[in-house]
């Protein structure tokens, strides 16, 4: 019997428990098959859809690395974690640390499921790079004048896109999946993943203008945009060039919204709720960001005016 046949026969003989289902899947590097069970055992009871999506993306990167390296996730060779860290070294230090935390989240779930032993963690001794600044100090945002230039140079569709990021804090994924049925433009509200977001007047106007290009607000149905996440980011890049605005990633629009919401309310729970953040700890970077921008404003003008 060939080595592959022995391997497949061994898989068929495993008991059909949750742990064995996950074990079978990960032996094949099949994260999609394992994910429904793995996600229920992640640390911190991660339930927020955005957090889960980001966690899945980070774990998928690890699984892909293991598959391409010929490594077993359940019995990796010595140095596996260090080699994975080297493979993501081209990312920013903060991103590397996030990816490592998601790798650790996978092994936390595997221990909870008893797929691996209680002390098994190949990433236990691996440390990410030191951050040169506390979280939040490295966040970048679009300035209000830059958002205004983007809006001024945008067509009807792109204006709605940009303001969903800058005035509602939506991610590209949320924007791509947004449906007309999620909007209550009479009440200036958007419904996204069970949370209600108050829409600004200019965002409401932009959405009404976009709806008017089709059936109008009263009759519009289905997706607002026929765009993927990548296409939305590409639209922003082209618009920045057109408006002579320095391009930053889409999340800089979301950071802009979060920062302004914090400045206006001073309420971390409100910020977390409106952005769909799973924990109040995730709001702290925006508090630090405001402090950094305030110091810069004071150094530049000599007064205490809030940045905004």
Automatic annotation (TrEMBL):
It holds the Pfam family Phage_integrase. PROSITE patterns: TYR_RECOMBINASE (PS51898). SUPFAM superfamilies: DNA breaking-rejoining enzymes. Keywords: DNA recombination. InterPro entries: DNA_brk_join_enz, Integrase-like_cat_sf, Integrase_catalytic. The keyword Lipid metabolism does not apply. Signal peptide: none annotated. It comes from the Bacteria. The keyword Ribonucleoprotein does not apply. Gene3D superfamilies: Intergrase catalytic core. GO terms for molecular function: DNA binding. Residues 137-301 form the Tyr recombinase domain. One of its GO terms (biological process) is DNA integration. This is Integrase domain protein SAM domain protein. It comes from Deinococcus aerius.
